[in-house]
Amino acid sequence: MLKWLLLMALGWIVYRIVVPRSRDHGRQREGSIEMLKCAECGVLFPETDGIRGSEANFCCAGHRDTWLSNR
Ligand SMILES: [Zn+2]
Questions:
Q1: How high is the pLDDT of residue 21?
Q2: Can you give the residue range of the structural domain that contains 39?
Q3: What is the DSSP letter of 42?
Q4: How far apart are CA 52 and CA 64, in angstroms?
Q5: Distance, CA 25 to ligand 1 centroid (Å)?
Q6: CA 41 to CA 44: how far, in whole Å?
Q7: Where do runs of H (alpha helix) occur along 1-71?
Q8: How many domains does the chain have?
Q9: Ligand 1 center to residue 52 CA distance, Å?
Q10: Shared domain check, 37 and 70
Q11: Which of 12, 16, 34, 39 has the largest count of CB atoms under 10 Å?
């Protein structure tokens, strides 16, 4: 049981070290463009495309309207 706890702790530490670095690499490749997630369909799109709302971001006006009407 203790062995599993140590393995989980080690995995968590490795995850914490690896994940922020891979995110930084992604940002450098994309330049200054931030990727946003559509609140309706979950697709990723550059911040220059789509619609940015005050509460959520959307890939198109149709999904913004659908999301707002479902609230
Ligand atoms: Zn969408």
A1: 63
A2: 33-71
A3: -
A4: 9
A5: 26
A6: 9
A7: 2-30, 61-69
A8: 2
A9: 12
A10: yes
A11: 39
Q: pLDDT digit string (tens) for 33-42?
A: 889 999 999 9
Judge if 55 and 67 occupy the same domain: yes
Q: In terms of domains, do 12 and 41 share one?
A: no
User: Are residue 41 and residue 61 in the same domain, yes or no?
Assistant: yes
> Residue holding tokens 């995110």?
23
- When comparing pLDDT for 2 and 36, which is higher? 36
Share of the chain above pLDDT 90, in %: 54
Confidence band for 30, pLDDT divided at 50, 70 and 90: low
pLDDT on residue 53: 83
C-alpha 40 – ligand 1 centre gap (Å): 5
Clarify whether residues 51 and 69 are in a common domain: yes
